[in-house]
Amino acid sequence: MFGIDPLYIAFAIPGLLLGFWAQWRVKSTFRRYAQVGTARGMTGADVAQSILQVHGIRDVRIEPSRGFLSDHYSPGEKALRLSPDVFNGRTIAAAGVAAHEVGHAIQHAQSYRFLGLRSALVPVVQFTSPLAVPIIVGGFILSSVTGPTIGQLVTIVGLAMFAMVVLFQLVTLPVEFDASRRALAALEQGQILGPQEHDGARAVLRAAAWTYVAAAVSSVLTLLYFLMRSGLLRRR
Predict the structure, then answer these.
(1) Beta strand pairing call for 79-82 and 61-64
(2) Cα–chain-centroid distance for residue 114?
């Protein structure tokens, strides 16, 4: 029953392939534009600070973080953390990524509703994400051992938990797309990048967006697989 499931492979492969392609694209695009310096020579930290000042945001601190492309904004701490290549980089890639993270700080300052929803989902997903699949599989096992009643109830609980993970991934899409839109607008309005440099920053942010699309697609396909495997979504 729990050997290699052709149905699982059919649902998993598209998400895996899209994920691998997205990771390759974002890394290759970032590395390409990480070799191209900007005319103004501002570091990523400088770019972030400049955009924050223009928007009147003075309570967000900018900090270096460890790891490649580990950049993120923490709403709870009001901290914008930039990876070494971005924090110290004077490149198109660094400017684009830094501006994107500031886009999240602007969302927070302006109470962007999807950012608020994603932040509210974070503790829920931290709890449900590691437990959902084991509970679903446990429900399948119980169904084969004790009958469908208890097993299906456990499976439904696991599916509900996994659905929260899917919801988080879907809510992340407008948050990330909006942050990139704000970033590109800020880079243009502040004349931080020239026209050609602006095109390079757009390419970096578009490549990064595909990683979020891939994660959402993969989670939706996984949920559909479990729904079909449980019998709650009948195959036609």
Answers:
(1) parallel
(2) 13
Query: Are 218 and 18 a contacting pair, CB within 8 Å?
Result: yes
Angle between helices 148-189 and 92-109 (to 10 degrees): 110
For 180, the domain range is 6-230
236 in a structural domain: no
Active site residue 101: yes
In a domain, 235, yes or no: no
Looking at residues 76-85, what average pLDDT do you find?
Answer: 95
- Find the length of the chain: 236
Say if 149 falls within a structural domain: yes
Q: Which of 101, 176, 188, 197 is catalytic?
A: 101
Please report whether residue 210 resides in a domain. yes
- Residues 137-167: tens digit of each pLDDT: 999 999 888 777 788 899 999 999 999 999 9
Question: pTM (2 decimals)?
Answer: 0.90
User: Where would I find the beta strands (DSSP E) of the chain?
Assistant: 61-64, 72-74, 79-82
CA distance 124 to 120: 8
**Nearest-5° Cα angle at 136, 135 to 142:** 85
Q: How far is CA 202 from CA 48, 98, 183, 193, 233, in A?
A: 16, 12, 9, 11, 40
Distance CA 122, CA 120 (A): 6
